[in-house]
Automatic annotation (TrEMBL):
Residues 1-22 form the signal peptide. Pfam families: Thioredoxin, Thioredoxin_6. This is protein disulfide-isomerase. One of its GO terms (cellular component) is endoplasmic reticulum lumen. Transmembrane segments: none annotated. Acts as a protein-folding catalyst that interacts with nascent polypeptides to catalyze the formation, isomerization, and reduction or oxidation of disulfide bonds. May play a role in storage protein biogenesis. Residues 22-145, 359-486 form the Thioredoxin domain. The keyword Endoplasmic reticulum applies. The lineage of its organism: Eukaryota, Viridiplantae, Streptophyta, Embryophyta, Tracheophyta. InterPro entries: Prot_disulphide_isomerase, Thioredoxin-like_sf, Thioredoxin_CS, Thioredoxin_domain.
């Protein structure tokens, strides 16, 4: 569940997942005698060592997605504590100073991250299951059992193969031999991502050729061709097959939480992403979907992944991309390597393929989010927006000290009077500009790396960019600007490349 890809995706993923989990649940009731164990650095190892199977949520007190998960996690813990043997759910505040060392050991880089610890904590796998109580219970019961369960009856098959998840079933003439061992090894390795089972009798399985004797692998999935057979049992080939076969041609984004694992995969992929939004209850939905499907088939195995999202469920995504409901159906392309975005509003089904072709051919202009260029800009610290960045910063032939800030950021508020002091001290120097940009309301070009707020840059008259990491005092900043300013107003050389970009 960790959200670690930090490009555009970080923000987008967060807002998608917040809605993908469905309606806001009840507030976390403060349960007397909570079924969830609280662990900290003082007792983590001791408690984990006591349990062959234990689930730990690494959370931070300020994390919104954690607060959404908590009531569901709590309910699941209560049910699972009655399981035989009990399945233990615990939580660990990974943001607490004293706990951070342990969190680092587990490679926690996003919240919430839920880990399944087996074998007294010696093996840790990431929880990749659903986030609703009942589904968490089902998922964890399977996780607590063997990596691959035997299917002996049609009923067993019904329990393991459902219409929401990917299930991988090995069909074997007998449970021995290299094929079976390799299947088991892959099941052990990938068990937190998929459900694995094995059987001696393909007739028990709901789909596919029932005469198959094996060894063969039949992968069941709730989308596309619904099942696929595979017969190469080298572990690498098997893993690769599973990885590719379990990605839908089109990922669905709506209120159904069972799509959540597929959404996670979609956003964690290194591909660029094409997202089509429209109302799922629209009479034209099927036409759009089949057109998108045709295009997605063309791009299969290439570097674009496809999603179709219900615009009724996408308010926060629409807000982020500054589009309105009445502009749907609309298609958005997020280019992964440089965060550029392309948007086509009011798209017709027949335009989808052509638009993507234009994108591939480099014929489209990227969408840029910008506040309006201010009409009056006469405070000492000048306001820069995405649409004026080129003129104020790169083409002005001036030395610009630029702050990227967020309106809610406390450190930025503290810096404001200091920047003003700096700006006033350079008032008579026409070759120096002190400026600021709201980086939450404007797209920041990739040349500026914004790891946090405020981020400070100096761009010299000739276009050289220097990050400013010094003390945030007027004295230090003035000193830095004095040292790095250039008197030239010749802007034709080093700023050329970025001018083209903007
Ligand atoms: C671990 O220690 C913390 C206090 O340091 C305590 O609140 C918590 O209940 C303990 N957990 C267990 C399972 O003993
Ligand atoms: C995607 O692949 C094409 C070639 O198939 C390449 O030209 C393009 O740069 C790639 N885009 C990304 C974002 O990797
Ligand atoms: C700017 O110039 C004016 C007039 O020449 C002068 O009075 C003022 O002190 C100067 N300000 C600074 C900060 O140097």
């Amino acid at each position: 569940m960790a959200i670690s890809r930090v490009s555009i995706s970080f923000f987008v993923v967060a807002l998608f997942l917040a809605t993908a989990d469905g309606e806001e649940g009840e507030e976390a009731a403060v349960v007397e005698g909570s079924a969830v164990l609280t662990l900290d650095a003082s007792n983590f190892s001791e408690v984990v060592a006591k349990h062959p199977f234990i689930v730990v949520e690494f959370y931070a007190p300020w994390c919104v997605l954690c607060k959404k998960l908590d009531p569901e996690y709590e309910k699941a813990a209560a049910v699972l504590s009655e399981h035989d043997p009990p399945i233990i759910l615990a939580k660990f505040d990974a943001d607490d100073e004293k706990n951070r060392g342990l969190a680092d050991q587990f490679g926690i880089d996003g919240f919430p991250t839920v880990k399944i610890l087996r074998n007294q904590g010696k093996s840790a796998q990431e929880y990749k299951g659903p986030r609703k109580a009942e589904a968490i219970v089902q998922y964890l019961k399977k996780q607590a059992g063997p990596a691959s369960a035997e299917i002996k009856t049609v009923e067993d098959a019904g329990n393991y193969i459902d219409y929401k998840t990917v299930t991988i079933v090995g069909v074997f003439p007998e449970y021995t031999g290299e094929e079976f061992e390799n299947f088991r090894a892959v099941a052990e390795k990938l068990r937190s991502d998929y459900v694995f089972a094995h059987t001696l009798d393909a007739k028990l399985l709901p789909r596919g050729d029932s005469a198959v004797k094996g060894p063969a692998v039949r992968l069941f999935k709730p989308f596309d061709e619904l099942f696929m057979d595979f017969e190469d049992f080298s572990t690498d080939a098997l893993e690769k097959f599973i990885e590719v076969a379990s990605v839908p041609t089109i990922t669905i984004f709506n209120k159904d939480p069972s799509n959540h694992p597929f959404l996670m995969k979609f956003f964690n992929s290194p591909n660029s992403k094409a997202l089509l939004f429209l109302r799922f209850n629209s009479y034209k939905f099927d036409v759009y979907k089949s057109k998108l499907h045709e295009v997605a088939e063309l791009y299969k195995g290439k570097n674009i992944s496809f999603l179709i999202g219900d615009s009724e469920n996408s308010e926060s995504a629409f807000e982020y991309f500054e589009v309105k409901d009445d502009q749907a159906p609309l298609i958005i392309l997020l280019q992964e390597d440089d965060n550029k975005k392309y948007i086509k509003t009011n798209v017709e089904p027949d335009q989808i393929a052509a638009w993507l072709k234009d994108y591939q051919d480099g014929k489209l202009t990227p969408f840029r989010k910008s506040e309006p260029i201010p009409v009056v800009n006469d405070e000492p610290v000048k306001v820069v927006v995405a649409d004026s960045l080129r003129d104020v910063v790169f083409n002005s032939g001036k030395n610009v000290f630029l702050e990227f800030y967020a309106p809610w950021c406390e450190h930025c508020k503290k810096l404001a009077p200091i920047l003003e002091e700096v700006a006033i001290s350079f008032k008579n120097e026409t070759d120096i500009v002190i400026a600021k940009m709201d980086a939450t309301a404007n797209d920041v070009p990739k040349e500026f790396d914004i790891p946090g707020y405020p981020t400070l840059y100096f761009v010299s008259a000739s276009g050289k960019r220097l990050p400013y990491d010094g003390e945030r005092t007027a004295e230090e900043i003035i000193d830095f600007v004095q040292k790095n300013r250039e008197t030239t107003s010749d802007t034709t050389t080093s700023s050329e490349s970025i001018k083209d970009e903007l």
